[in-house]
């Protein structure tokens, strides 16, 4: 009898393994299909999109788009090439985030817009705008400022924050006249 039981259990094990799917099948499928799918997407989706974006002159990156839109907005044929009204913020010094007060940033910049009353509005709100500038500049860490394009990132953050504080799109461009990290 023990021989019959062992024979029947072996038969059951063999039948169970024959019915169960192989554990290796999904692993082999992933190892073969993933590189093939990655290659196909790269060759037939990503590369054509990149080429189309580079070759089309009307397509711009987000930062170039923001700068270009701000330059095109509000200009007519007479004022083309002439800078709009501007307002200068000078000698703003802030401690950088995450440095424990050992590193600081000193910045001066000029804000440009197209509205003729820009200087009046900015001078009336100068203290609020200085606070906004100190908050934006003070929130940056040393690592943020070491990345490529960090000045453009800071520039865009300042323009966006100024417009948000003023509740209007008055500020179109910002030019750094001084940007020192110590």
Largest sheet: 3 strands, antiparallel
**What's the N-to-C terminus distance?**
89 Å
Structural class by helix and strand composition: alpha+beta
List the quaternary state of the chains. single chain
Strand order of the largest sheet: 1-2-3
Q: Hey, roughly how much beta strand do the residues contain? A: 15-25%
Mean pLDDT, as a whole number? 80
Helix-strand string: HHHEEHHHHE
What is the number of helices? 7
Q: Care to count the β-strands?
A: 3
The dominant shape is: elongated
Are there runs of 5+ residues with pLDDT below 50, and where?
A: 59-79
Helix content: 55-70%
Radius of gyration: 31 Å
Structure description:
Strand 1 (86-95) and strand 2 (104-112) form a beta hairpin. A three-stranded antiparallel sheet has the order 1-2-3. The relative contact order is 0.12. It has seven helices and three strands; from the N terminus they run αααββααααβ. The chain has helices spanning 2-19, 24-55, 62-72, 118-124, 126-138, 142-146, 150-166, and strands at 86-95, 104-112, 173-181. Helix 5 (126-138) runs antiparallel to helix 7. The protein is α+β, with helices and mostly antiparallel strands.
